[in-house]
Write a structure and sequence with these properties.
Blueprint: H1 5-8, H2 26-32, H3 47-83, H4 101-129, H5 143-153, H6 166-179, H7 186-226, E1 237-238, H8 239-253, E2 278-279, H9 281-291, H10 297-334, E3 342-343, H11 344-357, H12 360-363, H13 382-386, H14 389-413, H15 454-459, H16 467-487, H17 518-523, H18 547-553, E4 564-565, E5 572-573, H19 581-592, H20 611-632, H21 642-655, H22 661-679, E6 681-682, E7 685-686, H23 696-699, H24 722-731, E8 744-745, H25 747-758, H26 764-777, H27 782-812, E9 820-821, H28 822-829, H29 838-851, H30 853-858, E10 860-861, H31 863-876, H32 881-894, H33 900-921, H34 928-945, E11 952-960, E12 970-978, H35 982-985, E13 989-991, H36 998-1004, E14 1008-1010, E15 1035-1041, E16 1047-1054, H37 1067-1104, E17 1113-1120, E18 1130-1138, E19 1143-1145, E20 1151-1153, H38 1161-1169, E21 1173-1177, E22 1180-1188, E23 1194-1201, H39 1210-1235, H40 1255-1272, H41 1280-1283, H42 1290-1303, H43 1311-1314, H44 1316-1319, H45 1325-1333, H46 1345-1352, H47 1357-1363, H48 1366-1391, E24 1408-1410
Parallel strand pairs: 12-24
Antiparallel strand pairs: 1-2, 3-8, 4-5, 6-7, 9-10, 11-12, 11-16, 12-13, 14-15, 15-16, 17-18, 17-23, 18-19, 18-20, 21-22, 22-23
C-alpha cells in the first residue's frame, strides 16, 4: 500500500517539498542539493502538484479496492473450507524421508493436482456408463483416451482451472509443508522464521502472563503493606513520605549484593515539599508499583521489609511529633518574658530533680540528665571522662537494678497462674519477669514455675475463660499452628485485620498457654529498647505487683495522681493506694474489664462472662499484645498475603465446633474491626494527617527578637542604607540553625533536649506528669528576668549595629574591593562635628593599632576592623552610645554620593562576589567550583564593565621549594588557569630567580599593574611560540592574602589576547579584582578548613573503631547553606567509614534535602538545634552528633550507626565521648586559625615544622594534653594499689613496662622492666612530671614502637576498663596516644608533602581550567 503523504513525510532522511515555497531561486536549489531536504519542485515542475493532489489519491483508491478484493477472496475460501473440509487422506504424502522428498514435492506440485481430478472424473464416467458391469457387452469407452483428453484440456499452461476438491486442497497444504522441509530454500527459511516468530510470540505471551500475575501479586502485597502505615482520618498518607521511603531504600540497598545502583527505579522520584498531597491505598499501590516495576523478587522482598520498617519509624515520628508539640507549648508557657530563651541551668536542674523523684521503673526510660548528651562534653570533668570511677558507679547501679528486679520477682511479682478469687471460675492471675541488664545477666532459675514473657508483664491482663472453652481453644490453637506451617505464614504476616484466636496462634505467641515451659518463655521474651545514651532500660510505667513496689513506684509532686497507661496499650491503669498482694491481683482483674474510650466496646461483666465474650476479650488482649510487639520490632519486615489470611480464617472458622459458632464468628469480625481501628491510634488518638512540628525551626526562627520601632519603618533616619541592609539580609543564610549557648535554650533546642531526656518508651501519663512538673517548677526571679531581657535587647542592638556597619562599609566600598583606605576614613571623620572630636579620633586610632597592628600598618580596614574602629570612636565620644553611633553613621553615609550607574555596578559586583563564597560553601571541600566561580566572575565583569576585554586569568600558590632550594626558599605553583592557557601555564613553576613581577607583588603585598608589557622588560612569558611583536597588552598581579594579611599566592590577569585599543585595566576594575582576590582568599581558606576538619574526623574514627567495635558505620555530612535567607540548607554526604576499615569519599554530590528525607529528619533536627540526637532508623540505632563552628552552629553532622545494638557498652560509650570532645576541640582551633582570631598554637615539636603542619596531629595533641592534666593530678599515693601487688596482673605489669620503655628504651628485657619490684620503684612524682613534659614527636626522643606494641597490643581496652584502676587507665591511654603521635610524625617525615609557605596548610586540590582567552605572560 502506498504511504499517505503525512506518513511519507516521517521517513528519516527524506523531506518532501512544502507547498508554500514558490520563490526559491536556482542558486538556492543548488545550495539545498547537499542538504537532506529536497528542493521544492512546484516552481519548475507544476505537474507534481497535480500528481500529489489527484493521481496519488486515485492510486490509493485503487489500492484500497484491490485490498478489499483480496480480503473478499480469502473470506470466500474460508467459507469453502468450513463447508467442504479438506480430505486429510492426502497427509499420507507427508513424510520427512529425505530420499524421496524432491520426487514427492514434484508430483504433488506439478502432476497430481491435475491428475487426481482427472482420475476422479474418469471414475465417475466409468460409474455412469456402467463399464465395469460383467453382464453387459464391452463398450467403446476407452479410459486411457478419456484421461488423456482430460489432461490435455486441463493443462495448467492453458489457463483452464477447475474447482479443486477436498483431496486436492489437502494436497496443496501437504505440498506447502513439504516445501518447508527442503533445506536452503526460500520456503524453508520462511517457515523457520515463522516458527521462530511463533515461538517468540508464545514465550512473550507466557512472560507477559507471568508478569501480569506477578504484578497482581505485588499489588496485593503492597496493598497489605499499606495497612502497616499510620493513616490520617481519611485513610491516606502523604506522598512525600512514600517518596522518602523509596529514596532511603537506595542507601539501604547500596551495601547489599542485590543492589543495581541508583538507577533501579523505573521513574524519577519527584520532589514534593508538602504533606498535603496524599494517597489512599489504591494510589499508593499504583505509585509504588510503577516505580519498582523492574525489581527482582529479592529486591521486592527487601523493599517490603524496608517499607515496614519505615512505617514503624513513621509511627514513632508521629508519636514524637505529638510530644514535641507538647514541649513547644511548655516552652511558650515557661517563657514569661517572651524573649525566646529559657535558662539552661535551671532546666537541667529540673531534669535532675524529676529523674531523682521518679520511681525506679520510670527512671529507666529517661536519659541520665547528669551525663552526655544532656550535659555537654566540655562540662564533664576530666577525671570523669578519662577515669574509671563513674564506670564503677554504673556497674553498681546496674547491679542494684538487677537486685531490685530480683527482689520484685521473688517478692511475689511473678505469680504463676494463681487463682485470684473464688467467685471467678477458671480465672488465673499472671505477672511479669523484668529484663536484666545486658552487661549483667545473673542466672534466674525458673524451676518449678511456669515461664511468663515480658509482654505479659507490660499488658498485665487476666484472660477470663471457662474450663471447657480453654480446652477447646487449645485444640484450635494446635490446628492453627499446623495450618500456618502448611501455608508458610510468618507470625507477623497476619497482623492488622487478622482474626486472632483465643491463644493468639497466628502471632506464634504461646506465652499465655498454661503448658508453656520456662525455656520457651525465655526464648520468646521480648524486651524494650534500652536507652543508648545511659544504659538504662527503657520500660513502660506499669501497675506494681506488690505492696513494696507500690510504695516505690508511687510518684507524688504535691498534687493528685495522674492516671497512667502503658505505651502501646489501650487500657488505663488507675493509681491506687498500696494494698496486699491479693488486692493488687484483684485490681488487675477488675481493670482488665475496663476498656478505654479509644475503642467503643461495652465492658463485659466478669461474673457473667459467656464463652463468646471470654474469647473476644482474650483475642482483643492478644491483638493488643501483637500490636505492641510489632510496633517495637524494627528489625524485621512483615510479609503478609490477604489470600492466605482469608484461608487461615476459614480454616479456623471450620474448626469452631459448638452451639456458639455464629456468635463466635461475629465476635471475631468485631474484634478484627476494632483492632484495625486501635492499631491506627497514637496514644489513643487518631493522626490528624499533619506533622505539627516539622517546620518548628522555620516558624520560630525569629521568635523573641526585639526589633526597634523604626527598624522597618520607611521613614527611618537611614533611607540610603535601607536598600543595602535589605540586600545584606537577603544574602545571609537562613536563621533556622540555632547556635549552642551553655547558659540558655531557644525553642528548638529546648524541645530537642526534652525529647532526648524522655527517650522513646515513656508512657503518655508519665509524659503529662513530667510536663506538669516543669511547668510548675520552672521559676525565675525578677532579677533573672530583667537580666535576660537586657541580654536579648543587647543582642538585638549588636545585630543592628553590625548590619548598619556592613551597609555603611558597602556604600563606601562601591567597587567591591573588600577593604577601605584608613587615611580616607580618617579624613572624613576629622570633619565630624566640625573637627571638634579630633582628640577622640586619635585615641580611637591608637586603640585600633593596638588591637589590629597589621591592618593599621597597611592602612586597610576590613568590614570587621571598620566596625571596631567606629565603636572605638563612639566609646571616646560623650553622650548616649546609641544616639552617638547613629549620628556617626548618618554623617558617614552623607559623606559619600554614588550615581545610579555606580549603584547598579555595585549591586552586580556584590552578587558576583557572593557567588564565589557560595561556591566554596557548596563545594563539598573541593576547590574546583571555586576556581570556576572566580573565572566566571572575571569574565562577567570584563564583559559588563570592562569594555568587553578578553581576559586571561591564572592562580598560583606559594609552596616551599623542596626540589631546588638553591633557587629560593619558596616558589609559585600554578594550580588553575583558563582553558587556552593550560598548555603553557598549568602546573608550571615560577622560581624567584626567574623574570617576573609576581614575587615583587608578594613582598610588597600590593597589586602591580603593568600597562604595557612590551615596554617593561621584566615580564616572564610562558608561551615561547608567540612572536615578540605580538606580545602586547596589560598585565596585573594581585597578591592573595589570608586573614592575617599574609600572602599565600597571586591572582594574575592579562589582556594579551585582546586586539582592541583599550587594553589597560582601569582603576575601578583593579579595585574590583582586589575584591575578587579577597573573596577567593576567604573561599580558599574555607575549603582548606573543611578539608582539615575531614582529616581530623578520619583520624578520630581510625582511633575510635578499634576501641568501639559495636559502632558499625559513621557517615559525615557537611552543612551547605541555601542561596538566600528564604532557602533551607542541605546536607552533603562527604565521607563514609565502617568498622572493617573501608572508606568512601563521595566525590559526586550526594545532597540530602529536608523535604526529600522525612524519614531522616533526625539529621536536620540535629543541625537545627546543634544538639545530639539518638533514634531508631530502619531497625538500627543512630546517633546524630553536630560539629559546631565558633558561633555554636552546626557545620557538620556525624551519623553513627550501632546497628541493632540497643546501646554501646560503657567503655565504648566513654571512648566515643573522648573522641567527640577531641574532634570538637580540634575543629575549633582550625576555625580560629583560619579566621585569624588566634595564631597557630604549637604544643608539640612536630607542629613547629611548616612541612608537618598536619590536621591529624591536632586530634592526638588534644588527647595528649588532656591526659597530661589527668596524670598531673595524680599523686604518689594514687599508685598505692598498683604498688601493693606482689604478683601483679599481666595487664598492669605490661602497662607500667610500656611507660618505662618510652623513657628508657635501653631497659628492654632488663630487670628494671621485667622485675616487678624494680618497676614499682619508678612510680613516683618524678615519673608524673616526666609524663607531663614528654613530647613523643621530638627529634631527640627515640621510641622503639615494636617493643611498646609488644607490651600493650594484647591488652583489650575493655579489660583495662574492667580492672578499675584509674592510674592504669591513664597510663594505658597515654602510651597509646604517644605511639599514635610517633607513627603519624614518622609517616609525615617520610611522605614530605609540599606545604604552603604561609600558616595555612596547602590544600589538597586539583588543577582546574575553564574556557577563556589564552595568555602567555607570567603569573
Amino acid at each position: 500500500m502506498a504511504a499517505q503523504p503525512e506518513e511519507a513525510a516521517q521517513i528519516p532522511g527524506l523531506k518532501f517539498p512544502k507547498h508554500g515555497d514558490k520563490n526559491m531561486t536556482v542558486t538556492e536549489m543548488k545550495t539545498n542539493q547537499g542538504s537532506d531536504e529536497l528542493p521544492c519542485l512546484s516552481n519548475y515542475a507544476p505537474w507534481k502538484e497535480y500528481f500529489y493532489e489527484k493521481v496519488q489519491q486515485r492510486t490509493l483508491s485503487l489500492q484500497e479496492i484491490k485490498v478489499k478484493m483480496i480480503q473478499a477472496q480469502k473470506a470466500k475460501e474460508e467459507k469453502v473450507k468450513k463447508r467442504e473440509p479438506c480430505d486429510w487422506l492426502s497427509k499420507e504424502w507427508f513424510s520427512k524421508e529425505n530420499y524421496s522428498l524432491d520426487t514427492r514435492i514434484y508430483l504433488l506440485d506439478k502432476l497430481l493436482p491435475t491428475l487426481i481430478p482427472g482420475v476422479e472424473k474418469l471414475l465417475m464416467e466409468v460409474e455412469r456408463k456402467n463399464v465395469l458391469a460383467t453382464d453387459k457387452h464391452p463398450t467403446k469407452f476407452d479410459p486411457i483416451n478419456f484421461l488423456g483428453e482430460y489432461l490435455m484440456r486441463h493443462n495448467p499452461k492453458s489457463g483452464i482451472f477447475t474447482k479443486p476438491g477436498p483431496y486436492v486442497r489437502g494436497m496443496k497444504m501437504v505440498t506447502e509443508e513439504l516445501k518447508t522441509e527442503v533445506p536452503a530454500t526460500t520456503s524453508n527459511r520462511l517457515a523457520r522464521m515463522k516458527f521462530e516468530a511463533k515461538s517468540k510470540r508464545k514465550q512473550r505471551e507466557q512472560v507477559e502472563n507471568i508478569k501480569s500475575q506477578v504484578k497482581e501479586k505485588r499489588k496485593e502485597a503492597l496493598a497489605i503493606q499499606f495497612k502497616e502505615w499510620t493513616v490520617d482520618v481519611s485513610g491516606r498518607i502523604p506522598i512525600a513520605l512514600v517518596q522518602s521511603a523509596l529514596r532511603s531504600f537506595l542507601d539501604v540497598t547500596a551495601a547489599t549484593p542485590i543492589s543495581a545502583g541508583k538507577a533501579i527505579y523505573g521513574r524519577k522520584l519527584e520532589i514534593v515539599d508538602t504533606l498535603e498531597k496524599k494517597v489512599n491505598i489504591d494510589e499508593f499501590t499504583e505509585y509504588v508499583h510503577s516505580t519498582i516495576e523492574n525489581f527482582s523478587s529479592d529486591m521486592f522482598q527487601e523493599l517490603l521489609k524496608h517499607l515496614c520498617r519505615c512505617a514503624d519509624d513513621f509511627r514513632e515520628t508521629i508519636r514524637h511529633d505529638m510530644w514535641r508539640q507538647m514541649f513547644t507549648d511548655l516552652f511558650l508557657d515557661c517563657d514569661y518574658g517572651k524573649v525566646g530563651l529559657l535558662n539552661r541551668q535551671i532546666v537541667l536542674a529540673l531534669l535532675e530533680e524529676f529523674c531523682d523523684r521518679s520511681p525506679v521503673i520510670a527512671k529507666r526510660g529517661f536519659c541520665n540528665p547528669r551525663q552526655w548528651p544532656i550535659v555537654e562534653l566540655q562540662e564533664i570533668e576530666l577525671a570523669d571522662l578519662w577515669g574509671g570511677l563513674d564506670d564503677q558507679e554504673i556497674c553498681e547501679e546496674l547491679s542494684e537494678k538487677s537486685a531490685l528486679s530480683q527482689t520484685e520477682i521473688s517478692g511475689g511479682q511473678t505469680l504463676a497462674y494463681e487463682p485470684v478469687g473464688d467467685d471467678i471460675q477458671g480465672t488465673y492471675g499472671m505477672s511479669t519477669t523484668v529484663r536484666e541488664d545486658p552487661f549483667e545477666q545473673p542466672d534466674v532459675s525458673e524451676a518449678g514455675t511456669r515461664g511468663v514473657s515480658k509482654e505479659e508483664n507490660q499488658t498485665a491482663t487476666v484472660l477470663l475463660k471457662t474450663e471447657s472453652s480453654d480446652a477447646e481453644v487449645r485444640e484450635e490453637s494446635e490446628d492453627g499452628v499446623s495450618m500456618m506451617k502448611s501455608t508458610d505464614l510468618e507470625p507477623s504476616d497476619l497482623g492488622g485485620d487478622t482474626i486472632h484466636t483465643e491463644k493468639s496462634t497466628f502471632c506464634g505467641d504461646t506465652r499465655i498457654e498454661m503448658q508453656a515451659e520456662s525455656a520457651s518463655a525465655e526464648s520468646q521474651e521480648e524486651s524494650f529498647p534500652r536507652s543508648a545514651f545511659t544504659g538504662d532500660c527503657v520500660t513502660r510505667d506499669e501497675e506494681p505487683g506488690s505492696e513494696k513496689q507500690m510504695e516505690e513506684g508511687e510518684f507524688s509532686l504535691d498534687r493528685e495522681p495522674v492516671p497512667e497507661t502503658n505505651m502501646g496499650e489501650d487500657y488505663m491503669i488507675l493509681d491506687r493506694e498500696p494494698g496486699t498482694e491479693g488486692q493488687v491481683r484483684q485490681e488487675k482483674d477488675n481493670w482488665i474489664a475496663e476498656p478505654t474510650k479509644t475503642i467503643p466496646k461495652p465492658a463485659p461483666e466478669t461474673a457473667s462472662m459467656t464463652l463468646e465474650e471470654g474469647a473476644v476479650a482474650e483475642k482483643e488482649t492478644s491483638a493488643r499484645k501483637e500490636s505492641f510487639s510489632n510496633q517495637h520490632d524494627n528489625q524485621s519486615g512483615r510479609q503478609a498475603s490477604s489470600e492466605t489470611r482469608r484461608q487461615a480464617e476459614d480454616l479456623l472458622q471450620d474448626q469452631d465446633k459448638g452451639p456458639a459458632l455464629s456468635a463466635r464468628k461475629d465476635s471475631q469480625a468485631k474484634v478484627s474491626q476494632e483492632f484495625e481501628k486501635a492499631r491506627q491510634l497514637i496514644d489513643g488518638m487518631p493522626w490528624s494527617g499533619d506533622l505539627l512540628t516539622s517546620d518548628l525551626s522555620f516558624r520560630y526562627s525569629s521568635y523573641g527578637e526585639r526589633i526597634p520601632e523604626d527598624w522597618n519603618c520607611e521613614n527611618s533616619r537611614f533611607p540610603d542604607l535601607r536598600p543595602i541592609m535589605a540586600e545584606i539580609q537577603s544574602r545571609t543564610a537562613s536563621p533556622i540553625r540555632s547556635a549552642f549557648d551553655e547558659s540558655c535554650l531557644n525553642l528548638p533546642q529546648f524541645v530537642q533536649l526534652m525529647e532526648t531526656f524522655v527517650g522513646k518508651g515513656t508512657s503518655l501519663p508519665t509524659m503529662k506528669r513530667f510536663i506538669a512538673f516543669i511547668r510548675e517548677e520552672y521559676k525565675q526571679t525578677e532579677e533573672e528576668k530583667m537580666e535576660q531581657l537586657k541580654k536579648v535587647h543587647r543582642s538585638s542592638l549588636l545585630a543592628r549595629r553590625k548590619l548598619l556597619s556592613e551597609a555603611l562599609f558597602e556604600k563606601w566600598d562601591n567597587n567591591g574591593c573588600g577593604f577601605l583606605d584608613l587615611k580616607e576614613v580618617d579624613a572624613v571623620l576629622s570633619t565630624f562635628k566640625e573637627g571638634m572630636e579630633k582628640k577622640a579620633l586619635r585615641n580611637a586610632k591608637k586603640h585600633l593599632c593596638s588591637c589590629y597592628p597589621q591592618p593599621s600598618r597597611m592602612g586597610k580596614l576590613s568590614p570587621q576592623t571598620f566596625q571596631t574602629y567606629l565603636e572605638l570612636v563612639v566609646a571616646e565620644l560623650t553622650g548616649d552610645e546609641d544616639e552617638v553611633i547613629d549620628s556617626l553613621v548618618e554623617f558617614l553615609t552623607a559623606s559619600v554620593e554614588r550615581s545610579h550607574m555606580e549603584h547598579l555596578r555595585r549591586l552586580a559586583r556584590k552578587k558576583w562576589l557572593h557567588s564565589i563564597q557560595q561556591a566554596a560553601e557548596t563545594s563539598g571541600a573541593s576547590m574546583e567550583p571555586v576556581y570556576k566561580a572566580v573565572f566566571k566572575v572575571l569574565s562577567q565583569d570584563a564583559e559588563a564593565h570592562g569594555d568587553n576585554k578578553k581576559i586571561s586569568a591564572y592562580i598560583a600558590l606559594l609552596e616551599e621549594n623542596q626540589v631546588s632550594p638553591e633557587r629560593g626558599r619558596i616558589l609559585l605553583h600554578y594550580v588553575a588557569c583558563t582553558a587556552d592557557d593550560a598548555p603553557y601555564v598549568l602546573n608550571q613553576i615560577l622560581y624567584r630567580d626567574m623574570e617576573g613581577v609576581s614575587f615583587a607583588a608578594i613582598e610588597e603585598g600590593k597589586p602591580i599593574h603593568v600597562p604595557r608589557v612590551q615596554l617593561h622588560g621584566n615580564i616572564h612569558f610562558w608561551n615561547y611560540d608567540r612572536p615578540v611583536e605580538e606580545r602586547r597588552g596589560s598585565f596585573l598581579v594581585l597578591p592573595l592574602q589570608d586573614a592575617r594579611w599574609r600572602v599565600f599566592g597571586i591572582l594574575g590577569l592579562d589582556t594579551l589576547q585582546d586586539e582592541g585599543e583599550k587594553t589597560i585595566f582601569l582603576t575601578h576594575e583593579i579595585s574590583f579584582y582586589q575584591g575578587i582576590s579577597h573573596a577567593f582568599s576567604k573561599a580558599y581558606h574555607h575549603v582548606c578548613t573543611l578539608e582539615n576538619i575531614l582529616q581530623v574526623t578520619l583520624t578520630a574514627l581510625d582511633w575510635l573503631y578499634p576501641r568501639a567495635p559495636n559502632i558499625h558505620t559513621v557517615i559525615t555530612y557537611l552543612m551547605e547553606p541555601g542561596q538566600d535567607k528564604t532557602c533551607d540548607y542541605a546536607l552533603r554526604k562527604v565521607l563514609t567509614t565502617d568498622h572493617i576499615g573501608q572508606r568512601e569519599i563521595h566525590t559526586s554530590p550526594v545532597l540530602l534535602l529536608r523535604k526529600e528525607n522525612l524519614l531522616r529528619d533526625y539529621l536536620f533536627k540535629c543541625t537545627d538545634s546543634s544538639q545530639v540526637i539518638g533514634t531508631y532508623v530502619c531497625g538500627e540505632y543512630h546517633f546524630a552528633i553536630p560539629l559546631r563552628d565558633l558561633s555554636g552552629k552546626a557545620l557538620a553532622v556525624l551519623d553513627l550507626s550501632i546497628g541493632h545494638h540497643q546501646e554501646l557498652p560503657p567503655h565504648e560509650h566513654r571512648d566515643l565521648q573522648k573522641m567527640l570532645k577531641m574532634v570538637q576541640a580540634a575543629c575549633s582551633e582550625i576555625l580560629k586559625m583560619s579566621s585569624g582570631e588566634t595564631e597557630p598554637i604549637c604544643v608539640l615539636e612536630a607542629e613547629h615544622a611548616a612541612s608537618l603542619r598536619h590536621s591529624g596531629i591536632l586530634f592526638h595533641r588534644f588527647m595528649l594534653q588532656d591526659l597530661r592534666e589527668c596524670v598531673q593530678k595524680l599523686k604518689a599515693e594514687d599508685f598505692a594499689e598498683i604498688k601493693s601487688y606482689v604478683e601483679p596482673p599481666a595487664l598492669v605489669h605490661n602497662i607500667v613496662k610500656a611507660v618505662l620503655l618510652l623513657f628508657y628504651p635501653k631497659w628492654k628485657g632488663s630487670e628494671k622492666t621485667e622485675n616487678w619490684s624494680q618497676c614499682i620503684l619508678k612510680l613516683d612524682d618524678n615519673l608524673i612530671q616526666k609524663i607531663y613534659c614528654f613530647d613523643p614527636t621530638a627529634a631527640s626522643v627515640q621510641v622503639q614502637a615494636e617493643g611498646l606494641l609488644d607490651c600493650i597490643t594484647g591488652i583489650p581496652r575493655a579489660d583495662v576498663w574492667k580492672h578499675g584502676s584509674v592510674p592504669a587507665e591513664y597510663l594505658y591511654d597515654w602510651v597509646g596516644t604517644c605511639l599514635s603521635l610517633t607513627a603519624l610524625t614518622k609517616s609525615l617525615h617520610d611522605t614530605k608533602v609540599p606545604s604552603s609557605a604561609t600558616v595555612t596548610p596547602n590544600s589538597r586540590v586539583k588543577s582546574f581550567i575553564l574556557s577563556s582567552n589564552s595568555s602567555d605572560s607570567d603569573s
